[in-house]
Amino acid sequence: MYKVSGMLGLLVVFRAVGIVLASSYNLSEQCYFDPLPSILPSTDNRTIPWGEPTIQYANGTTCCSSLDELRYQMDIIDAQLLQILSTREAHVREATRFKATIANINDPSRIAQVIQGAVDAAPAVHLPQIVAQLVYESIINSSMLFEGCIFNTYEPADPVDRIQVMNKIGEHVLRPE
């Protein structure tokens, strides 16, 4: 459920910087829902920029006048995404502490719930559902690898507990004096 809040939080970020997405419907709106429409590949050779701007700022101006400007804006967003992912992974690390076995890391019903929640919430923030699905699958799969590493490398601070953990995974450890 907090993933949906995260997506809504991203919408708040967009609102905070004053971005309003154009909402007039056209055929490309079908690209925001899963499954993607079956459309023949275009053979057009278009003069660029083609189409109309789809991002409008709160002050009435539109983004962007060049590909370089778009890339600059996307670099800023990518830096924000990295920070959000870092915060999420800090929480993943904490979640690991509440898992008794390595097998508890893979919770198929929770995984399905999180991914479906992201897919269902995507249209509300004008995010293509296929992007939400694939990004969340990737985040969860990589988070499970990270969580497994954290679980497997845990060493208790108490030497007696450390010996018990190491004995469980079959490593020989000298007993403390």
From TrEMBL:
Keyword Transcription attributed: no
GO terms assigned for molecular function: chorismate mutase activity
Write the record's keywords in alphabetical order, separated by commas.
Isomerase, Signal
Signal sequence coordinates:
1-22
User: Source organism's superkingdom?
Assistant: Eukaryota
Q: Give all residue intervals belonging to the Chorismate mutase domain.
A: 61-151
Q: Which GO terms describe its biological process?
A: chorismate metabolic process; salicylic acid biosynthetic process
* Pfam families per record: CM_2 (PF01817)
**Record-given protein name:** Chorismate mutase domain-containing protein
